[in-house]
From TrEMBL:
The keyword Magnesium does not apply. This is O-fucosyltransferase family protein. PANTHER family: O-FUCOSYLTRANSFERASE 16, PROTEIN ROOT HAIR SPECIFIC 17. Keywords: Carbohydrate metabolism, Fucose metabolism, Glycosyltransferase, Transferase. It comes from Theobroma cacao. GO terms for molecular function: glycosyltransferase activity. Belongs to the glycosyltransferase GT106 family. Signal peptide: none annotated. InterPro entries: FucosylTrfase_pln (IPR024709), GDP-Fuc_O-FucTrfase (IPR019378).
């Protein structure tokens, strides 16, 4: 019995052992299977991850290549107002603007700056002086009896004015008789006016009679019309250049016509020749009586509005912006419109708007001009006369300036259509009216360094250093971009600091710097009291003088940058060439309404 029980116990133990071994086999098999399955899944995941990594790496390489070879972003949309059609974006924009207004709040008043806004304290010590010296030979002594010089000017009114001025000096250098210059009647504006319809020709001849012999037309030769030899001299040709290149031909042909005569005489001449330039520009070139009378009427109407007024040469027309290559945030529409106009000039390179603006070569927007004037102390009660053509962007662009200065005038708003009718079809005569009002203004503000700006800046220096404000665009550019990150007081303080040396004060520019027509230093004399005044300066005055000297260095540096490209040598297309591309543009962009001296900047 015991033996039987022992056998059963052994058998049960064997069965348990076999069952345990069978379970172990199943357990190991399943672990091996799961390990294999995991290995397969891991391999598939690794391959998938490698594929995804490769695709993502290629995408990154494409992005890198695009960022390297594409053109840099050209500008931010800080300059012209743009509005979204969605109500949510409008609310977001208004919320952002209200937060910014809390920091940058423009006051209605210009504040008290402790100085006279309408005059210079130093101007009384300087005056224009252009009389010839004792050694300057008169026309009756030096004029050769059989030499005639004819001139065909180029550009708009003020560019032609430079050519006329230099033509008198060229005739004096050549000992020749000058025939009244021909005005440009074939450029973009097709102004058919001749010399006698814009300038008082009899006064011109008589006032210069001691300097150069001038006649109205070339006399006949042997009873027949005389065809002069036509030629062109290089830019900025000095007296020796004229004598070398022209005298042999003049002696042989006896009559020479110089074509496209703008900036064809050197900027640097001896003092007597520079003073002759001043006598021509500031005394002999007088507008005709109808132009003078209408200009005087416009000035009187501005004086009826206020004792003092500002004249602003805005220069924000489509042609100006296209030529400059600047960008103001108008998107593809602006790039397309201005780019089509820019094709009018054959030799203009591809523009880099950000670089152009960074170097201070872009006109300020109307809003920026308004902010600058407010920071300089001019309040909302100041009256502004605007000399401008069709502003790019229209009323939307002008709205911020009008909000800052509601007393906004132009020749079209202070004169009737009937009064302007004799002038409105002639761009030169309309530009002459603007010239008179800007010259007579208490403060003249220029928004570019074109011909009208230079001519008026020099004239205002010669006749008493009346304030002439040139925006220091190179410095102001950065300030305008960052204005919403500072208070108004900080902004205004920086504007006033940056504008030292750009306000038309005496001695702002070193002698010989810039165009002579802008800085006629040879024709500016000092009174005896200027040195006495300097000896009795207060510490504050001395500090201001030191700032002026520093600003003069900056101004000269900027001037050298501005002179780097020869803007006066830009070749522009006539109507036959460049205007064909403009036919598809919106007509509102290209409307030409009596715009002053557009052609002058084109070849500037």
């Amino acid at each position: 019995m015991k033996l039987k029980n022992l056998k059963q116990l052994i058998f049960s133990l064997k069965m348990r052992r076999k069952k345990r071994e069978r379970n172990n086999i199943l357990l190991h098999g399943s672990s091996y299977f799961s390990t294999g399955l995991n290995l397969i899944v891991w391999r598939k995941r690794h391959r998938l991850f490698s594929f995804i990594s490769a695709v993502f790496g290629c995408f990154l390489l494409l992005l890198f290549a695009f960022s390297v070879f594409s053109s840099p972003p050209i500008a931010t949309d800080h300059f012209l107002p743009h509005y979204s059609s969605s109500s949510s974006s409008v609310k977001e924009r208004e919320a952002v603007e209200s937060n910014l207004d809390a920091v940058f709040r423009v006051p209605a008043s210009g504040g008290y700056l402790g100085r006279d806004l309408w005059s210079s304290s130093q101007s009384k010590f300087y005056y224009g002086c252009s009389n010839a010296s004792m050694k300057f030979q008169t026309a009756d002594v030096k004029t050769h009896p059989n030499r005639y010089l004819l001139i065909a000017t180029s550009g708009g009114l003020n560019q032609q004015r430079t050519g006329i001025t230099d033509a008198v000096v060229a005739a004096y250098v050549l000992n020749a008789t000058l025939v009244i210059p021909k005005l440009d009647q074939h450029s973009y504006w097709k102004d058919t006016s001749d010399f006698a319809e814009i300038f008082n020709v009899d006064w011109f001849i008589s006032s210069l009679s001691r300097d150069v012999e001038i006649i109205k037309e070339l006399p006949p030769k042997g009873g027949k019309a005389w065809i002069p030899r036509s030629m062109r001299v290089p830019r900025k040709c000095n007296p020796k250049c004229y004598q070398t290149r022209l005298l042999p031909i003049l002696n042989k042909k006896h009559a020479v016509e110089l074509t496209k005569f703008d900036y064809r005489l050197s900027n640097r001449l001896d003092t007597d020749l520079q003073k002759l330039r001043c006598r021509v520009n500031y005394h002999a070139l007088r507008f005709t009586d109808p132009i003078l009378q209408m200009g005087k009427r416009l000035v009187e109407r501005m004086r009826m509005n206020a004792e003092h007024f500002i004249a602003l040469h805005l220069r924000f027309e489509p042609d100006m912006l296209a030529f400059s290559g600047c960008y103001y945030g108008g998107g593809d529409k602006e790039r397309g419109e201005l780019g089509a106009i820019r094709k009018r000039w054959k030799t203009l390179h591809v523009s880099n708007p950000e670089k152009v603006r960074r170097h201070g070569r872009c006109p300020l927007t109307p809003e920026e001009i308004g902010l600058m004037l407010r920071a300089l102390g001019f309040g909302s009660d100041v009256h502004i006369y605007v000399a401008s053509g069709e502003v790019y962007g229209g009323e939307e662009t002008l709205a911020p300036l009008k909000a800052l200065f509601p007393n906004f005038h132009s020749k079209e708003t202070i004169a009737t259509k009937e009064e302007l009718a004799p002038f409105s079809s002639f761009s030169g005569r309309m530009a002459a009216l603007d010239y008179i009002v800007c010259d007579e203004s208490d403060v003249f503000v220029t928004n570019n360094n074109g011909n009208m700006a230079r001519m008026l800046a020099g004239r205002r220096r010669y006749f008493g250093h009346k304030p002439t404000i040139r925006p220091n665009a190179k410095k102001l550019y950065k300030l305008f971009l960052d204005r919403n990150n500072m208070t108004w007081e900080e902004f205004a303080s920086k504007v006033r600091a940056y504008q030292i040396g750009f306000m038309g004060e005496p001695k702002e520019m070193k002698p010989g710097r810039g165009e002579f027509h802008e800085n006629p230093d040879s024709c500016i004399c000092e009174t005896e009291g200027v040195k006495t005044n300097q000896n009795h300066q207060t510490p504050e005055d001395q500090e201001n003088d030191n700032k002026m000297k520093d600003a003069t260095e900056v101004s000269d540096e900027q001037q050298s940058i501005e002179e780097d490209p020869d803007w006066t040598d830009i070749d522009y297309l006539d109507n036959l060439g460049g205007l064909k591309e403009l036919s598809n543009l919106d007509s509102s962009v290209l409307t030409k309404q009596e715009q002053p001296e557009v052609e002058e900047f084109f070849s500037d």
